Amino acid sequence: MKTTDVIVIGGGLAGFMAAAVAANRQQKVTLLTYGSGSLPLMSGTIDILNAKAPDAAIKNLPAHHPYQKIGLKNIDSAIKFFCDIAAQANLPYVGRLSAQIPVVTAVGTLKYSCLVPESMDASNLINKKKIFVVGIKGLKDFYPSMIADNLKKYFPDKIFDVAQIDLKLLGGRDITCMDAAQILTDNEQTLANELKALNATDNDAIIIPPILGVMGNFSRSVITTQLRADIFETTCLPPSPPGVRLQRAFIKYLQKSGVKIFENSKVVRGVVEDKKVTGVVVENAVREKIFRARKVILATGGFYSGGITMRDFDNPMEPIFDIPVFFPTGAENWSNQQLFSDKPQGFSMTGIFTNDNLNPADENGKILYENLHVVGANLGGCDKIFERSAGGIAISSAYKAATI
Ligand SMILES: Cc1cc2nc3c(=O)[nH]c(=O)nc-3n(C[C@H](O)[C@H](O)[C@H](O)COP(=O)(O)OP(=O)(O)OC[C@H]3O[C@@H](n4cnc5c(N)ncnc54)[C@H](O)[C@@H]3O)c2cc1C
């Protein structure tokens, strides 16, 4: 097999972003993955950091934090590149590194994030007089009355109206947002007719679950042109249409850019010569195959996706290259008693430590492979869920690794 420029292992947000950036820089890229990662599960928002002004807060993070190795300039460039890819798939995102945008969650709280699909940007809710919260008959895990009750706490001066519409999506069984979004793609008029019947005006907002199709902003455009009121999508329980839209936007970009994508391809080990990774071994049902490259980006997703495993307590492992994995030792530091506490969870800090080029390091800080770069959820040293940085670390570490 011919040696390619870059192999990316992993088809989640970090792997897709790394492959897209490298391809955009005229590199020949092969992407190997055996699962779809967390994109179809995520809300679609890219959380950079839970701070009013993330750019300022990032400067104060400790030296071992992934963002300190990535650098503000790369984070900013990653955001611009990400928005560009999404826009090319008619999936406009809004936001920037210096501020947060509100999104209505599936329970009616406001969540703040730096990068938000335009369809979820709830900034303009504040300017509305009346808010319709619309449920869909048969749709599970979406409770419009609860959403309205909780939103009243943020907007006590607004009038709320709860509506339930019947789209006759399926006979009998409960449906998910993903089912509804798939059915409504190319069938938007059914929803448009029901929403028009609300008679909402320019001063009103309509809040709905995230069911506006699975292909970018297409279904939303069909509906908004027929309504006077602004329409906002909430987040939902997985599977999540906004995450799937993002996944499709990336796949479209990668295919257009000539990235070779090998699905169902589990990388089982690296090929190492003279402390350099020269290739990786993929195992499928029939045989093993070697893929060779000058550079390898490890985007295998940490604990969530098998990028880091732990058969024995206190012994986490990186299964492909056997890179040392750092974690808080001692069971007492492993977790807080309260799952939803106001402190990071020890187990969530588990991951690989790197130098500024995102090359993996051993326990003494010695760099193991200079042409292997670690990105996304594999990176250790912070609780990405607690500090709400998972998406931001994924896109910015991927951007840096692909541009080195
Ligand atoms: C339920 C849920 C909701 C979330 N919501 C948000 C949110 O709202 N905002 C936000 O910013 N972040 C959110 N996140 C976090 C975010 O989606 C991820 O942490 C982040 O995108 C990390 O992406 P990743 O590419 O590093 O990992 P993943 O998305 O986990 O992708 C890893 C990929 O590597 C593949 N892989 C693993 N091992 C191998 C191997 N040996 N060979 C080949 N392929 C392999 C996996 O199959 C997978 O495709 C959420 C995460 C979850 C689980």
CATH superfamily of the largest domain: FAD/NAD(P)-binding domain
Helix and strand pattern: EHEHHHEEEEEHEHHEHEHEEEEHEEHEH
Strand content: 15-25%
Cα-based radius of gyration, to the nearest Å:
22 Å
Largest sheet: 7 strands, mixed
Number of domains: 2
Give the name of the CATH architecture of the largest domain: 3-Layer(bba) Sandwich
Number of helices: 12
Which outline best applies? globular
Ligand inventory reads:
flavin-adenine dinucleotide
Q: End-to-end span in angstroms?
A: 25 Å
Helix content: 25-40%
Give the low-pLDDT segments: none
Overall SS class: alpha/beta
Mean pLDDT: 94
Which CATH class of the largest domain applies here?
Alpha Beta
**Strand element count:** 17
CATH fold naming of the largest domain: FAD/NAD(P)-binding domain
List its salient traits.
404 residues, alpha/beta, FAD/NAD(P)-binding domain, Rossmann fold, 2 domains, seven-stranded mixed β-sheet, four-stranded parallel β-sheet, 12 helices, 22% strand, binds flavin-adenine dinucleotide
Structure, explained:
The protein is 28% helix and 22% strand. By secondary structure, it is α/β, with parallel strands linked by helices. The protein has two domains: 3-11 and 27-37 and 61-82 and 245-403, 3-Layer(bba) Sandwich (FAD/NAD(P)-binding domain), CATH 3.50.50.60; 94-243, Rossmann fold. The strands form five sheets. Strands 1, 2, 11, 12, 13, 14 and 17 form a seven-stranded mixed beta sheet that branches. The chain has a four-stranded parallel beta sheet with strand order 8-7-9-10, with helices on one face. The protein is globular, with a radius of gyration of 22 Å. The two termini are 25 Å apart. The chain binds flavin-adenine dinucleotide. Flavin-adenine dinucleotide binds at residues 9-15, 32-39, 41-43, 45-47, 238, 266-267, 299-301, 304-307, 320, 376-377, 390-391, 394. Residues 9-15, 32-39, 41-43, 45-47, 238, 266-267, 299-301, 304-307, 320, 376-377, 390-391, 394 line the site of flavin-adenine dinucleotide (FAD).
